[in-house]
Design goal:
Blueprint (H helix, E strand, L loop, with lengths): L1 H12 L3 H14 L3 H17 L5 H21 L4 H18 L1 H11 L5 H4 L4 H15 L3 H10 L8 H14 L5 H13 L3 H12 L6 H14 L3
Helix pairs in contact: 1-2, 2-3, 3-4, 3-5, 4-5, 5-6, 8-10, 10-11, 11-12, 11-13, 12-13
Length: about 230
């Protein structure tokens, strides 16, 4: 399995996402191991972001497949920190497709899946995902919180300050790596009325040059936010 993981890492680092996906998918057919399942989920995320840029059905396909891969990994090892982390990430991505009511429902599930950060405090991907989760939970409209309390029980709580702490920590660990990390830092500073820093991070978003869905969406949102600053 070590050889497969090494090959996957090389392909992933080279942004050969389809080849990385093929390698790990083939390996899983012979060895159903959590370390392979979360890597497949990672590849699904990258393919959704690249191949799904102009095709919503392709995007949805890879999000569903990534969520399924995490689920399979957790069935084998419920304590796998990486499978838990990526399951939380894919729950969030899934809720973005299905709307705010699904986001509310998934927020209850997601809070139990951020285990990776306890075992690997340098995991900047999980730090970013946790920061986004804190932001979304805090940003939930009052009427939707009331809806959640009625149908699901009292929803999770957080603060913009907590969200910012995770997002800035992610940025510190991997500066300029995740475009939506810069975007969410800007959005959080905006909510906290620190408009100068919100503007600063909006401009950071606009400096990204990748041709993928995340970058396209983040630049659009940052440009809209700049109009308010």
């Amino acid at each position: 399995m070590d050889g497969v993981i090494t090959e996957w890492q090389k392909l992933d680092s080279s942004k050969k996402y389809k080849e990385a996906y093929d390698v790990v998918s083939h390996a899983i057919s012979n060895n159903k191991h959590p370390e392979l399942y979360w890597r497949k989920a990672n590849s699904c995320r990258n393919l959704a972001n690249s191949l799904g840029k102009n095709d919503k059905q392709v995007y949805k396909k890879y999000i569903e497949e990534g969520l399924s891969a995490c689920d399979e990994g957790l069935r084998i090892d419920p304590e796998s920190s990486k499978c838990n982390s990526w399951y939380g990430i894919f729950l969030n991505l899934s809720s973005e497709i299905e709307g705010i009511n699904k986001r509310i429902e998934n927020s209850f599930k997601m809070k139990n899946h951020w285990k990776a950060i306890k075992t690997d405090p340098d995991d900047f991907v999980t730090l970013h995902a946790l920061g986004r989760w804190c932001f979304e939970v805090t940003d939930l409209p009052w009427i939707k919180r009331k809806f959640a309390a009625t149908f699901f029980g009292e929803p999770p709580t957080s603060t913009y300050e907590e969200a910012l702490n995770y997002l800035l920590d992610s940025e510190k660990k991997a500066p300029g790596t995740i475009v939506k990390n810069s975007l969410y830092i800007a959005k959080t500073y905006h909510r906290l009325k620190n408009y100068d820093l919100a503007k600063h991070y909006c401009h950071k978003v606009l400096e990204f040059t990748e041709d993928d869905l995340d970058t396209e969406e983040a630049k659009k949102e940052a440009s809209e936010l700049l109009k308010k600053l």
